[in-house]
Design a protein that fits this description.
Number of strands: 22
Largest sheet: 7 strands, mixed
Number of helices: 17
Radius of gyration: 24 Å
Structural class: alpha/beta
Length: 555
């Protein structure tokens, strides 16, 4: 929500009002110092207050996510308490006997935010259940369905930098435990805005909430382990990327019958500082370097990585050039999708976000399954009726929709380990399987490019410029169609997305990131020409051509 830009006097008054209700010693001290310096005319302090008070972290379909600190444009105890009270008000108007389960990861203040949420929910009359300890996001998503509650909250910033935290909301009932979508997000945001007009000191609180036992965790572990196939002989490494994935993953792998992985000890346990990585995201260059070193040391067949809340999965394999390489999200997605199609036996739906590879559609056609494109985000994928498998190229996979309705890096890792073990037993590798895919379904090449901007406003300006000057060709390839999703396209809700289809079947999709100051574009090309490496090379050449062209177009 945007607010008016305040005068210095108004800014200091707003900051003092916030300070009076802030229960956190760290942010209280931070804000107190800014107020003192701003009152003395310090321009840096005044700018700091403007940054914190001229706007507010928007509550949307991703819930809340942002930098930790004082003020309404930061993640802190005041903001989270307002969000919890607004969500409680929403649940009380939509449910006769509302209930909620709350989880948290190992980031700074995650447990504090979770407990604040539990006390506010209980004080408002919502039956509140707190998970027993810090746990992965998939366990929380599972608990929403398993406990049959009205809603769920997971306190996590997933793979964002260490200075961030977030607040992810799920709904039960007719929403089946999926993340919120419109109009629920706007309704909850409105309720939060009403709470924010007052002081959180006036909100009722209660410690009459339940901290659940290990039963929900044990059930998640048992059901996830049951996904494993009969073949278990595979050598692998594992990293939790300083997050909360290892303890639960270890229990799952043991129960499934896999040997213990070679653990990347430096990244195995929760550490909110994320000391060995610049960004705790396995997609980032260098993030898996320690995994590669461990894999070379033990002669692994593959390396498994989870992001800090373990809802995403990254996989790396030894390349044919002797170097380790991380598979793209699309490569992992199509391999898992192929397995799901084989299991489905002609019944069910495969789904992927529109920015993911069209290869999954080809799989669905090959197995006489339905296929659905969705807008980006698992909040859309997870809602598809009859879903048997869904994925998004940003390392998110759902292999077990009956158990959980969100991306689940732990379940996906079990399925991938089973596949790797089966291939190994047949004398094959994961790369051999990708070759078999290209021979059967065609070669697909994808690029995902992120352009980082210093100011959020520059992203909007770039999208406006692209709309006003729609290219007729990119990289020498003619544009066959230019689709602006701003007013809705092909039945999709209005979104800030542009899609270009090219002569020959390639495509480019452009959209702002939902969680970072980035503009992303996605390139997809395919080829059925030639055989083996020739087929893949043809697709890669077109993708490279379009990537270079889009960099020029976007400046």
């Amino acid at each position: 929500m945007s607010t008016e830009i305040l005068t210095t006097a108004g800014l200091i008054a707003a900051a003092n009002a916030w300070l009076e209700q802030d229960p956190d010693a760290v942010t209280h001290t931070e804000l107190e110092a800014l107020i003192t310096d701003a009152a003395q005319g310090d321009e840096t302090a005044i700018a700091g207050l403007h940054d914190r008070f001229d706007s507010r972290l928007a509550f949307g379909t991703a819930g809340l996510r942002g930098e930790l600190g004082a003020g309404p444009n930061r993640m802190n105890r005041v903001l989270v308490t307002q969000a919890a009270a607004g969500l409680a008000a929403y649940l009380l108007t939509h449910e006769l006997s509302p209930s909620i389960v709350i989880g948290y990861d190992g980031r700074i203040n995650s447990e504090v935010f979770a407990r604040d949420t539990a006390t506010i929910m209980a004080g408002a009359g919502v039956r509140a259940i707190l998970l027993p300890r810090l746990l992965p996001t998939p366990v929380l998503a599972f608990a929403v369905r398993h406990l049959n509650v009205s809603a769920g909250v997971m306190v996590t910033a997933s793979h964002n930098p260490a200075i961030d935290n977030g607040y992810k909301v799920y709904l039960g009932g007719d929403n089946h435990g999926s993340q919120i979508v419109p109009p629920a997000d706007a309704d909850i945001a409105h309720a939060i805005d009403l709470v924010a007009k007052g002081s959180i000191a006036d909100l009722p609180r209660s410690t009459d909430f339940v901290t659940t036992d290990e039963g929900v965790v044990d059930e998640y572990i048992a059901l996830t382990a049951a996904l494993a196939g009969p073949v278990k002989d595979v050598v692998y490494t594992y990293t939790a990327m300083h997050g909360v994935g290892w303890e639960t993953s270890k229990a799952v792998y043991e129960k499934a019958g896999f040997a213990a992985p070679a653990l990347v000890e430096e990244q195995a346990h929760p550490d909110a500082a994320f000391p060995t990585v610049a960004f705790p995201n396995p997609e980032e260059p260098g993030a898996m370097d320690l995994s590669f070193a461990k894999a070379r040391e033990v002669g692994a067949d593959l390396a498994i990585a989870h992001d800090p809340d373990a809802d995403r999965l990254a996989v790396a394999v030894p390349g044919r050039d002797g170097e380790w390489r991380r598979l793209s999200g699309n490569e992992v997605g199509i391999l898992l999708g192929w397995r799901a199609a084989e299991r489905a036996k002609g019944h069910g739906v495969l789904a992927a976000s529109i920015v993911s590879s069209p290869a999954l559609r080809a799989i669905a056609a090959g197995y006489d399954l339905d296929y659905t494109d969705t807008l980006t985000g698992f909040k859309w994928i997870s809602r598809i009726d009859g879903l048997v498998f869904g994925y998004e190229e940003a390392l998110g996979y759902l292999v077990d929709p009956a158990k959980v309705r969100d991306k689940d890096g732990i379940s996906a890792s079990v399925d991938f380990l089973s596949m790797a073990a089966e291939l190994k037993a047949d004398g094959k590798t994961v790369l051999d399987r990708l070759d078999e895919f290209a021979a059967r379904f065609g070669a697909f090449a994808s690029r995902q490019v992120s352009l980082r901007f210093a100011k959020i406003s520059e992203i909007g300006e770039t999208m406006t410029r692209l709309r006003a000057n729609a290219p007729t060709a990119v990289g020498g390839l003619a544009v066959a169609s230019f689709d602006d999703f701003e007013n809705g396209v092909d039945g999709f809700a209005p979104s800030n997305i542009i899609r270009m289809q090219f002569e020959g079947g390639a495509r480019v999709i452009v959209r702002p990131s939902g969680t970072e100051p980035k503009l992303k574009f996605y390139v997809d090309a395919s080829s059925m020409s030639g055989e083996g490496a020739e087929r893949q090379a043809a697709a890669e050449a077109v993708a490279s051509q379009l990537e270079a062209g889009m960099r020029e177009v976007l400046g």
